[in-house]
Amino acid sequence: MTKSIQELFDLTGRTAIVTGGGTHLGTAFTEALTDLGAKVFIASRRAELCEEVAERLRAQGRDVTAMGCDVTEESQVDALVDRVMNESGRLDIAVCNAGGSFTTSYPPNGSVDEFKRTLDVNLTGTYITAQSAGRAMIPAKSGSIITLGSIAATLAMDTRIYNSDFKRSGPPYIAAKGGVLNLTRAMAAEFGEHGITANCISPGQIPRTDTNADQVETFRQMIPLQRTGLSQDLKGVVAVLASDAGAWITGQEFRVDGGWSIW
User: Fold this and answer.
1) Spatial distance between the Cα atoms of 24 and 148, rounded to a whole number of angstroms
2) Domain tally for the chain?
3) pLDDT tier, 164 (very low <50, low <70, confident <90, very high otherwise)
4) Letter string b/e over residues 13-43, b meaning 16 or more CB atoms within 10 A of that residue's CB
5) Which of 132, 178, 180, 255 is the most interior residue, by most CB within 10 Å?
6) Which residues participate in catalysis according to the annotation?
7) Residue 68: burial class (beta carbons within 10 Å; 0-12, 13-18, 19+)
8) Does this model's pTM top 0.70?
């Protein structure tokens, strides 16, 4: 039966996980999914931060549950998925948003420990989360795994545009996000026979509120649309990929960067 556009985007009765759910991007993803009717479990290492976000969103009438989870620990991710399955009986959407940059040193004197930690949180954590979610989705023969890349997944950083006091991510983050992108393609191939999609969202410059204003202005001038991004700019793409509107999309990267990567 042909569905209307409203029916394609409707997530009523579906359940999602958003890791890194206490962040500005994680909150935007959660708002988008709950706006469409989904129940969302948000999780991160900082359980108290997730609970603060969940309380605020519940006060708006959204169905949000918070839980602590370190995505680099397989047992903790499995416990998160088990709780979702026990409470909801299904897992339809997994947004593998947890990540971060820990770079304080750069080649030729970059810290190998920082490199390993960055890979662990961004790449290994995504692998663990996608696998655990996928195992829960297989019996239903459907589901959407959404990973978080970056424009850094395919582009090196122009070191000339960063202020000396700005904490740029550097090679470890670029390597990790490049890995996330190709991991997503591999997961799409592995899970395709089970009706599960896997796609990657690669945001551009979405500064936090405490980012240096001069640095933000430099970013703005680099972007064809002449503004830096907002977390809400990611809501549309996650809505497509999480819903039946994106049912025939898999293994793809979606750059949401205001045009940064076109030149």
Assistant:
1) 13
2) 1
3) confident
4) ebbbbbbbbbbbbbbbbbbbbbebebbbbbb
5) 180
6) 150, 173, 177
7) middle
8) yes
Best CA proximity match to 133, nearest among 98, 91, 99? 91
Q: Which DSSP helix (H) or strand (E) runs through 150?
A: none
Give 223-243 pLDDT, tens digit per residue: 999 999 999 999 999 999 999
* DSSP 8-state assignment for residue 3: P
Residue partners of 102: CB distance under 8 A and separation at least 6: 114, 117, 118, 121, 172
Q: What does the pLDDT look like over 204-226, one tens digit per residue?
A: 999 988 899 999 999 999 999 99
Q: What is the CB-side half-sphere exposure of residue 155 using CA atoms within 13 A? A: 16
Note whether residue 165 is domain-resident.
yes
Q: Is residue 260 included in any domain, yes or no?
A: no
Whether the Cβ atoms of residue 96 and residue 145 lie closer than 8 Å to each other: yes
Q: What residue type is 238 in one-letter code?
A: V
Domain, as residue range, for 220:
11-251
Q: For residue 106, how many C-alpha atoms fall within 13 Å in the half-sphere facing its CB?
A: 9
Indicate which CATH number applies to the domain containing 89: 3.40.50.720
Q: What is the DSSP letter of 201?
A: E
Residues contacting residue 111 through CB under 8 Å, at least 6 positions apart: 104, 105
Spatial separation of the C-alpha atoms in residues 218 and 221, rounded to whole Å: 5
Angle at the Cα of 172 from the Cα atoms of 169 and 178, rounded to 5 degrees: 100
